[in-house]
Every structure is written in structure tokens, then in C-alpha cells.
Amino acid sequence: MKKDFSVKTIVAIGIGSAVFVILGRFAVIPTGFPNTNLETAYPFLALMSALFGPVAGGLIGLIGHTLKDFTTYGSAWWSWIICSGLIGVVYGFAGRKMDLEHGEFTKKEMITFNIYQVIGNAVVWGLIAPTLDVLIYSEPANKVYTQGVIAVVSNAVAVGVIGTLLMKAYAATRTKKGSLSKD
Question: Where are the membrane-spanning stretches (predicted)?
């Protein structure tokens, strides 16, 4: 699928952001550590990023997380909002070699995507988000780096399991490239 900035992509950004908000508000599992949950929004973000590319993924993460924060807390926590946009970009780049739109999601693609997403989650949530918390909000380092480690593990597992299942299910609904079926 060509991942340009079409009307379809713009609509996907709007709908994707709205779904991100809903999942981020109502489909989370608390980890027991303050403001750190197992999020179902990130597996969905991985699917949308793989389908529509890094720019769309970044915007869905950025817009969706901003709206989620304002509707949940009344204000925005910009360090983690920025990181939701960054992880959407990472997922989009990781999904560039896949062709989910044409029913392709091989075992090799699953493994490759998951290697990239685990590394991306480690850098974004384990390093960038806590560092921004310290720099922007003067948060205690031990607290935010602990949150970061929890976010790395929970997001990597959620995307690895739920995200992979979403991508596999989506690919299974699409007509395979080269089939005799009409598109």
C-alpha cells in the first residue's frame, strides 16, 4: 500500500485518534504503579501505523494521547504525549516492509516488527519519556525511570501479543496479492 497523505490517511488519523482516546480511557489494566497502565491503545496504534505509515502513526499517537490526557486529567502531560507520537513513528517505520493491505503477514515479518517495536519501546518509554519528565517537570528520576521500565515491558508485551494478533487478523481479511479474486 502506498503510504502517502491521502484523504483516506487523514480520515484514518481522525478515527485512529478517537479510538486511541477510547482505548486509553476505558481499556487499560492498572499495573499498581501510579499513572502507569497496560495500555490497549498501543497495539491499535501499531496496527494503524503499519497500515498508514510513520507520519499517520505519529499524529494518531500525538493527537490521541493529548485528547486522552485532557479528557482524563484536565491537562496534558507533554513528555508522554510526545513519546506516544514518537512510538507511532517507530511502529510506522517498522511496518513499512509489511504488506498487510494485500493479506501478507509472514512469520519473518512478525518477528522483525516485534524486534523493532521492543527496541522502540525501550528507547521511547525507557529513556526519552522519563528524561523529558525530569527535564520538563522536575520529576524525581527514580520514580519516572521506574514508570518507564514498567511502560517498556507492558507496551512491548501488549503490542507483541495484541498488536501482532490485530495485524494477523487484518491481513487475513484482505485479498492476497496475485489471487484471482477481484479487488
Answer: 6-28, 40-64, 76-94, 115-138, 144-167
